[in-house]
Design goal:
The protein is mainly alpha-helical. The chain is about 40% helix and about 5% strand. It has a two-stranded parallel ribbon. Helix 1 packs parallel to helix 3 and helix 2 crosses helix 4. The protein is globular.
Amino acid sequence: LQNSSETTIDTQEKILNFMIDQLQLNKKDDQIAYDRCPLDNIAYSMWCHDKGVKGFTKKFVTKQINLMKESMRYLDIILLCRFDPKQAVKDDGFRDTDVNFIKEVDNIFSSLYNQYAQNPEADIFFPTGDTPCLLPLPDDPQQRIDLIAEYIAPDGALIDDEESILDPNNLNEL
């Protein structure tokens, strides 16, 4: 499949449908981590629409957004890793290595996060009342691990408010 900056509407449809199918196979209490989720698919589709790539019409992207939006109900948390210009882009034979493309898609992810954080009731990209937590991660690897540990237990379960060190009742653990 052609992907990243060379993607097609056929590829984006297949990827989104595959991702949604995978999410629907699991029960709500399953503890599964995915490398990518439907939010990634939408970021790439929005990039293509913005660039005028053939087939990425407003109608197509809107349809994809609606499918993605409903699939968000199957996720508990999305960890957002921003592009870190201090890290070298490595050619793995699969992902795009064009730094401008990477930055442009990263900006779309940033916009999606800002929509989530600043307008949670706007209901454009995320379902009202059943939206996963979007957690932007710092660039530093150890800080990433430390932040993730505040939300996800070693067994993969989400840490609820009563267990979190951020709960005022647990301040003595600091």
